[in-house]
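Progress against Task 2.4 (sequence-to-structure conversion) is shown through the following example record, which the project officer requested during the mid-term review.
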Amino acid sequence: MPHIVFENKIDLNDFLQKFSPIFQRDSALIKIQTIFVDKDNFTALLPTVVIDENHQEFLIELSTRKEKTTIRLYPNTDPEKTDGVKIAMALLAKQIMNTYPDFKITKTNLSNYLEMVAA
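Structure tokens generated for the chain above:
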């Protein structure tokens, strides 16, 4: 399962205020327009559309714990893990790193995609 883990906990309500919609049309069309944060500020869901070899609509989940934040695919939507889906997750991680420059990634299986969107 693709994931990106940050060593810091994000204040999701703060990120909600700073979030900018993501739209990219390249090898795939990627659209992340909004973010929904739960009342306890532990989880956020981002409805995502990716059109590459497939048209997929799914949720990316940001979950926070005491010392970390994880980006992953929300299990109930389980899209096919295409390059476009992985790039969407990397674009969200890039926005988090741009918003919070001190945040460092501690664990991921999407390194190639993070390098791709950082360029």
